[in-house]
Each structure stands twice: as C-alpha cells, then as structure tokens.
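Supplementary notes for students who missed Thursday's class. We covered one full example, reproduced here. Read the sequence, then the structure, then the short commentary at the end.
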Amino acid sequence: MELARLGWVELYAQTGDAGLVCRRCGISRPTLRKWWRRYQAAGPAGLVEQSRRPRRLAAQKVFAEHETLILSLRRDRKLGIKQLRNELVRQHDLTLLLDTIHRVLVRHGEQVLKRPRRHVRGKLRYSRPVPGDRVQMDVCKICPGVYQYTAIDDCSRYAVFVIYPRRTAANTLDLLDRVIEEMPFAIQRIQTDRGREFFAEAVQQRLIDWGIKFRPIPPRSPHLNGKVERSHRAVLEEFWTTVDPKSADIADRVAEWQHHWNWNRPHSALDGASPIDRVAERSDQTPLREEVEALFNPAKERIRHPDYRIDRALAAVK
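Structure (token representation):
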C-alpha cells in the first residue's frame, strides 16, 4: 500500500494537478492532501500507515480509597468483576465501569481470580417464554436455625427471598402467599425438588385451589432447578457474607436485598438488564390471572407423592 501512496504523491509532484491524480488513481482530494503533507514532512517514511489508537485513553478517576476497597473485596470475598461492580453500587453507592475495575485489578496484579474453577461441560442457557410460566422454588440452609426459602421466575429471574427458622410445610404455605402477592405476574406452575416441605397435602391443595400446576423434578437432578441453584450461589457470595444471619433486623436486610436483586442488580443471563426490566419487556405477552385460571384443568392434577418410584406408579395407575 505504501508503494501506491508513493505513486500518488510522485504523480502529483510531476503534474501539480490534484484533479488529474484523483481521477487516475481513484482517490479523493482529502486523501491526496493528507499523504502529500506527510510525504513533505517525512519523505517516504511518512507514507507508512500509523496507528489510530488515541495517545491517551480517557479513564474514570479512581481514588486511592476506591482502589483499596476494590482490592479488599477481591481478596477477602473472591468476587468477580461484575460482582465487584454490583457490590460497590449496593453497599458503597459507588458506580464504576467494568473496564475501570479491571484496570485497577491489572495494576495490582489481581486480574486472575484465585479460586477453584468449576468444571463446565458447556453452556446451554434457556428460559421460559413469559414471566410466570415456571417458578422454581428451593430451600438453602444458611446456618443452624436460618433457612432461606427462594422462589425465582424462570423467564425474568424475578425472585422472592424469605427467612424461616425451619423447613416446614407451614413455612412453604407462607412463602406461597408471599409469592402470589409480590410477583407482578400470574404464576402458571411451580417447580421444586423432592423436599418433603413441598409435598405436604395442604401445599399441593393450595396450588390446585389457586389454579397453579405443581411440577416436582426427579431426584438427583438439581440442574433442572438451575435458576434457583445459581441464585443461591450468588446470594451466598454477595449478600450473606455481608450480614449477620442472627441479627435482629435480618428480615429487613433480606427485603432490601430482594429489592436490589429485582430492580437494580444487572443479570448476565438477561444481557445486563434487571428482572423488572424483563418483566416490563414481556408484559404484552404475559397472560393475566383470569387467562391462567381458564386454562387450568383440576381434573388433570393430583396429589403427588414424595417418593419418586411410588409417584411414578401412581401416575401410571391414573
């Protein structure tokens, strides 16, 4: 390419006619002027293509206390870059770009997260088409006497978190009341593992009365409840490491975290959007409560048995 530019400027030096050079070489006048100026300034060396990268990149100002905060979160809690960004916003009201956080980590040699890497056989993400189509429920033990009940929508990741002292059917019924009240869409089916707290007859009858399908997963298949399982990991890393589970105001802290999760926290699975953004995006396609109840057929539902083999045998008989 440098030879072609050399031909342009030599022809212009011979003829002095810019229009002739541009027509013959198929270039514009600004292009010819640019290379002619460079040729006059540096000779043939000026015809070499130069990098267009800015000499100085605009960088967000990070003060020393901000760097100390980023490094302490990285070292003490082993948070990834996106988790660092979320925690800086939630706990310290500090908004930094991911690139800015990355530059801080690189500057201090902390860009590689030193924690055991999980073996991932391959990512196959999916989600139900509309909010409420499937809500996954599970229980996570935080410490003795503190159990986190979680209900998370498969499509939007909109979640409800509640703390109870035990895993019981009564607490499951209370969680269902909260889910119906707090989730801003109609729920079509509930999916759980084989925990006994979900299989109580009172729980299943309540779902039938509300026109909600109960769909437990087979045993030893937590991947089918992947949304709620991943939410447990995120909550354990981002929330429970910052609070005392036995504190008197823990219920209020959990409520604050739930609001942050649903309204402010960006989710990678949602392309950086929050759950409420996805709910609003799919609102036109989401069926109303009346439509869900009209499609529900109680004759096709039955009380499920917690033992998988017995449950399969009962399904075959019916």
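Commentary. The chain has a mean pLDDT of 90. The longest helix spans residues 2-15. If anything here is unclear, bring it to office hours.
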